[in-house]
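Example record

The entry below shows one chain as it appears in the dataset: sequence first, then structure tokens.
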Amino acid sequence: MYLIRQCLPTALALSILAGCASNSTLSTQETRLTSLTQELSRHGDTASAVTLYERAATSMPDNPDIVLALGKAHLRNGNPRAAAEAFRQVYRMRSGDPDAVLGLGYASLLEGDVERAYALVADAAPKLNTYMAYNLLGITATLNGDFSGAHTAFGSAQTLAPDNLEIKSNQALAYALNNDMPDAIQQITAVTASPLAESHHVRRQALILVLASQDEQAQKLLRAMPKSEQATLLGQARRIREISDPAERAAAIGIIPTFSPAKRNST
């Protein structure tokens, strides 16, 4: 797939954009552009994805869907300031657009303004009704120390995506940060027992065990890990445990997800 990055000439990109400017519907336009840019992003070429959308936005400056897609591409490229400007432009063209509001919330989160992020995501998530929006709401609630709100949000996310292990893992961490260790351990143990569990879920379980002062159990869990990595992980977990404020502990853990847009679920 290396060829995708090397052999996508300008002529091809412009021909795709020209096709999108024809009589195709906005949903088709969004789908075609998103498919191409996500393919680029999957192979590490988020900069080309941004460039593609920037060309589209220049050609169609009054098209809010194109500008919205540009904002999402900026988020995937790790540029929250440029993303926020694109989302504000969408909001000016289409007041109240929940996708733009969610994007502004995610951009605020990346810039460290967790209170504004929480307010924006809380406004957008019920309107979008996607598991990713509710998962982000749960994360912003956790970072703000609102654990009741976090559990409600994660519950809504799990209703929409009952098999998603990331949501369950995030909720387990919210339990732990709120000192509800029995529920935290039960939840994360169920996650790591799944055949779909990955190594980062096991690391999350070790972190929760350390937060619960079960260091020996955490060490046993990581026994297959090289000693140096094991010592680093356990040391970081113990330092996080010493942070008294739950919201500060959440920030130290780093639970901000990679941005990934999703289609809206039907209500």
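Notes for this example: The domain at 147-267 is CATH 1.25.40 (Serine Threonine Protein Phosphatase 5, Tetratricopeptide repeat). The chain has a mean pLDDT of 83.
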